[in-house]
Specification:
By secondary structure, this protein is mainly alpha-helical. Helices cover 39% and strands 0% of the residues. It contains one helix and no strands. It starts with a helix and ends in a 33-residue tail after the last helix.
């Protein structure tokens, strides 16, 4: 059994809507654990900075 052009378009529309819902859920799932700008901890200036691989190398100067 093959789908008509209207059935195919309807099927694609439903799949795109479900994909949008899935992407939205994936973005907002457990987003309450995200660190928001106002909630970031203030680092202690007396402690040395943590070393990261990304902190060394070329600069834009």
């Amino acid at each position: 059994m093959t789908l008509s052009i209207n059935d195919t378009i309807t099927f694609v529309e439903v799949m795109v809507i479900l994909l949008g819902i899935a992407i939205t859920w994936a973005v907002y799932y457990r987003s309450e654990r995200a660190e928001l700008p106002g909630e970031a901890p203030i680092p202690n200036p007396l402690e040395p900075e943590e070393a990261h691989d990304m902190s060394a190398g070329r600069t834009l100067r």
